[in-house]
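TEACHING EXERCISE
Course module: macromolecular assemblies
Task: Read the component lines below, then compare them to the predicted structure of the full complex.
Student: A.B.
Group: 4
Components provided:
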Amino acid sequence: MEKIVVNGGRMLHGEVEISSAKNSVLPIIAASILCKDKSVIENAPMLEDVYVICEVLRDLGCNVYIDKKDNKITVETHNITLKEPNMDLVRKMRASFLIMGPMVAKFGRFKLSMPGGCNIGSRPIDLHLKGLKALGAEVETGHGFVEVDAKKLIGNKIYLDFPSVGATENIMMAAVFAEGETTIENAAEEPEIWDLAMFLNSMGADIRGAGTGTIKIYGVKELHNTCYRPIYDRIEAGTYMVAAAMTHSKIKIKGVNEEHLRPVISKLQECGVIIHTLNNGIIIDGSNKTKAVDIKTMPYPGFPTDMQAQMMTLLTLASGTSIITETVFENRFMHVSELCRMGANIKIDGRVAILDGVKKLTGCEVKASDLRAGAALIIAGLCAEGTTQIGDIYHVDRGYVNIEEKLKKLGADIQRVKV
Ligand code: EPU
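Instructor-supplied answer key:
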């Protein structure tokens, strides 16, 4: 077990480089299953979740080469088999369910362990299954498994009751070889959906409208080899933006697509943070006193739920009262009790958090309950008085490449220690 120890009070300076988006790379690796022979992912983030999905593909018979020096992942699919993947492996990460769409598209059937809930909510898969059924598949659930059987997938119109990211991705991948035209309405519009579609199109798929609420997939016969570079991680970038704002520092963040961060940038500006956009990056200047703001998480292009915990940390020290409403996940306030241990004044009422800004946070021992909660606590430690020790740091390693190294380079007093 490891924990991160932060001595607060240091200002940040210099620049930080953002890695590729975890939430693009996970579905992209799953989509590699559809490739006839070989796909290469460049600038891949070396993260625990990425290693897990690679392991799942290996378990199916793929050759997966992870080149940590060049940040490159190569997937060869010629030995892939229709087998039930190791349940313990699949259950390590909910995103493993993203192999369902590609496996059904490739083999016409697949049996996979049902993903469980997790720390941020129950996270059902009804919309994924609704989409597969609409394409002509028979779906059976029972004894902890989902079994999908589709002699032939045929394009159809699918309306999603909620623009689920995972359901949009799974249906898009399942429909790649389906006969005729598939339309997903009320599709998720996240940049990572666009990225997955671009990856599939680079292999010869015909997907149009990804990144908007209506996606059309025209079935093709097969997908050829590709080499693809995913988009930058907007949530990692947003996390460093908040770190700068929190410590009243000025830093440069390289690898930012401003458009993907509009909702975060606009909220930070409302808080008084000064942001200059560059060609492939931004300069963030947090020298002003932070003002309270209200935030409601929403599907893209609304404010991302994956930035809620980090923004909450910033607002613990803002002047005035902020209200944060979490509409995407039912249980994403696990960081609140830990922030309160550090001196924050936050009250929860269902999906609403009411924050009264306090003068300072004080360091203590806290625990990361999930990936973004962990990042939020590290940021809190950067400006807290004294030392903050963040336990269960494995959550953070699932989604942030070398977080303590990147922060150390920016001047933070931070280290990882074995417990
Ligand atoms: N939902 C349903 N039925 C479904 C699918 C989803 O009710 O069939 C509900 C969920 O329970 C949840 C909401 O819809 O309340 C949103 O879920 P969605 O399917 O959009 O999320 P996801 O695909 O499970 C991805 C990211 C999450 C991110 C969300 C929302 C990946 C691997 N994960 O999850 O990332 O929070 O979209 O943007 O792409 C993170 O990186 O920390 C993270 C949790």
